[in-house]
Amino acid sequence: MTEPIKADDIPVAFTPAGGWRDEMPPSVLAGCTEPLSADAPDLRGLWQAIAVESEGQPLPDHRLNKHVERVEQCGNRVVVTSEGIVHDMRADGTLENGVDDVAGPPNFDQRIRVAAVFSDGRLDLHPLGVVLGRPPMDTREVVNGEMIWHYGPFKVTLRRIDDPQA
User: Fold this and answer.
1) Residue 109 belongs to what domain range?
2) Residue 148's CB: how many other CB atoms inside 10 A?
3) Is the pLDDT of residue 165 over 80?
């Protein structure tokens, strides 16, 4: 019988110096058999933006319309890989276990610290930590089969482009 592979058994991943280029790096949590935390929304998959808006206005020419991201999950661990970055985090509300990496392009030299937490069916990201009364800067949730990503002033709707049965 094969031993289960838990999120703790897999080393934390980081963005390579200068960000990854060309093809996405391999999956970080491949082979992890630990079930998702009870409070975790299932965001797993490869997602592509289909609409970007700000303040209710469509932004058809915004660069986020080309956004593609892979979300991996295992236990309370989440890895988001996109646009040169690999952000590996535990959704436990602490900075210690959150993202400790670099910002995305073009700021691969800018360090970020972000706490992650599952809340009301979402993944909420809080730069510099969770502060009571301060909303998250970044949220992801699945609504009617599409991922809704709120990122600062932007709302990005993404469609899953990989086979969920694979």
Assistant:
1) 7-160
2) 16
3) no
Decide if 87 is inside a domain. yes
pLDDT of 1 reads 64
Report, in angstroms and rounded to the nearest whole number, the Rg of the chain calculated over CA atoms: 15
Whole-structure pTM value:
0.95
CA distance 125 to 127: 7
- 166 found inside a domain: no
Could you tell me how far CA 111 lies from the centroid of its own chain? 17
For 84-110, the pLDDT digits (tens) are: 999 999 999 999 999 999 998 888 999
User: The CATH number of the domain where 142 resides is what?
Assistant: 2.40.128.20
Residue with tokens 């998250």: 136
Tell me how many domains the chain contains: 1
